[in-house]
Structure formats: C-alpha cells, structure tokens
C-alpha cells in the first residue's frame, strides 16, 4: 500500500489531488476517503488556490468502493447501523466536500471511473477524459443499491430515464458514449491528454476566482429555485462581485481591448 493515499500538489493556483493507490486502482477506502476530505477542507483555508484538479495515479481514475471492506463487513459481527453510519461518515462526507468545494473542480479521467469512483468524477464541476476513459455506475455487480450521491448527481447530468438505465444495467460506457451523455465534457487522444487537460485547467485557474465561487453555488442551487428566486440571488451575488479587483480588471481590459489579467481577488 502507498504510504500517502492522496497526494496534494499546488502550483500556479492549481491544487492537484491524486488518488494514490494505483496498485488497487484507487478504491475509495476509508483511509483514502478521509485523506481526500481532509485535503479538501484544508484547501478552503488557503489563499493560493484558484482551481482543484482530481485525478488517479496509475491506469485507473478510481475503481469505486472498497470490495475487501465489503467482504469483511459480511464476515464480521458489526451491526447494520454501524455500516450505515460509517458510510455516512466517509464516502458521503467526501462527496459532499467535493460538491461544495468553493473552487472550480476538474476531474481528469484517464482510465476507468466506476461505482463510487464515477461519482467522484461527476461530483466535480467539469470532467475531462482520455480516449482510455470509461465510466460506469456498477453497484448492481455487487448487489447494492446506489450510494455516494448517485441519485442526486447522475439524474442532473443525464436525466432520470438514462440514470435508471445506467444503474439497472451497470453498463460501463466508453469515452465517446460518456461524452455523448454529458458525463465527460471533453475527450482528448491519449497522447495529447496531459497537454490538453493542462491547457483547460490553466484557463479555468486564470479566471475571476470570486465570481466563479458565486457562479458555482448559484448553478448548483438553481435547479431547486424558482426563476424569480434564482435571479434575485444572482443580483445579490453580482453586488458582491462588483467590489472585486477582478471585476475592475475585466472592465478595464475590455475597454482597452486586451485580455484580462485576473488575480483572483
């Protein structure tokens, strides 16, 4: 086992979180889940981060749930309530931390992302895939219902009918099919994946950070609001963003016919 389940690297405003159990295809173990959640919590306190990237070490993004732990639970004496509470304290809290992360989040899916691993990917704001990427909600293969936010996240991307189909069949989608359904925003050739993904992430990280923080929250909440409520909340957020250095820079750059140089403030 790797000593560090999740590796954090921060460079030029981009915080890259790498799931670091390549020997086991980066399963969402209790240790890995806790490490990822702790890093996400710590990042909210930093002033040198403008975008978060999530990726997997080795040939997979994430193989999903910890099958060994499932076997141990079946063979052990622990209560059902203990198992449910453990799920809530680990995977569920980690997914929630990822969804509510105040920075733009980008999943780099280079290889399989299945089960809870697929949810890690779609909990991010944007999903970039290589031609080798695959995505599947394969809970049925181990006789389980959905968890890790599937019922919330998946229908919002693919719609209710397709979400049911993907769960009922457990189909593992190749990169092109995942792209068609909106589970991947872009698919790049394997040889170009790193460069293309880096260029995309750089563009996001160079954006107006405070404005993005409000936009992310507003978009996430928008499906649960009336049109009038959504527009009222947007106006309130704009009032806050009007005071930022990035807004002033954006206006001045537009008038001077140059690209803005946002500093995230």
TrEMBL record:
Q: Does the keyword Phosphoprotein apply?
A: no
Keyword entries, A-Z:
Lyase
Q: Which InterPro entries match?
A: ClpP/crotonase-like_dom_sf, Enoyl-CoA_hyd/isom_CS, Enoyl-CoA_hydra/iso, Enoyl-CoA_hydra_C
Q: Name one GO molecular function term.
A: hydro-lyase activity
What Pfam families does its record include? Answer: ECH_1 (PF00378)
Q: Does the keyword Lyase apply?
A: yes
Report the family membership.
Belongs to the enoyl-CoA hydratase/isomerase family.
The name this protein carries in UniProt is Enoyl-CoA hydratase
């Amino acid at each position: 086992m790797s000593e560090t389940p999740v590796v954090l690297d921060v460079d030029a405003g981009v915080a890259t979180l790498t799931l670091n159990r390549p020997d086991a295809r980066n399963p969402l173990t209790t240790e890995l889940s806790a490490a990822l959640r702790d890093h996400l919590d710590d990042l909210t306190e930093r002033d040198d981060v403008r975008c978060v990237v999530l990726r997997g070490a080795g040939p997979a993004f994430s193989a999903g749930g910890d099958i060994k732990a499932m076997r141990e639970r079946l063979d052990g004496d622990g209560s059902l309530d203990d198992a449910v509470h453990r799920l809530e304290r680990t995977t569920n809290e980690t997914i929630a931390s990822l969804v509510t992360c105040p920075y733009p989040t980008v999943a780099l899916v280079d290889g399989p992302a299945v089960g809870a691993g697929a949810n890690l990917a779609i909990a991010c704001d944007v999903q970039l895939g290589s031609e080798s990427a695959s995505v599947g909600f394969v809970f049925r293969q181990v006789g389980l219902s959905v968890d890790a936010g599937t019922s919330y996240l998946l229908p919002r991307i693919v719609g209710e009918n397709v979400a049911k189909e993907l769960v009922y069949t457990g189909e593992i989608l190749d990169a092109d099919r995942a792209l068609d359904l909106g589970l991947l925003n872009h698919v790049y050739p394997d040889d170009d994946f790193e460069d293309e993904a880096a260029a995309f992430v750089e563009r996001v990280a160079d954006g107006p950070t405070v404005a993005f923080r409000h936009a992310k929250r507003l978009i996430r909440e928008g499906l649960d609001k009336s049109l009038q409520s959504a527009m009222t909340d947007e106006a309130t957020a704009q009032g806050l963003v009007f005071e930022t250095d990035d807004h002033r820079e954006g206006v001045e750059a537009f008038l001077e016919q140059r690209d803005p140089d946002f500093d995230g403030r």
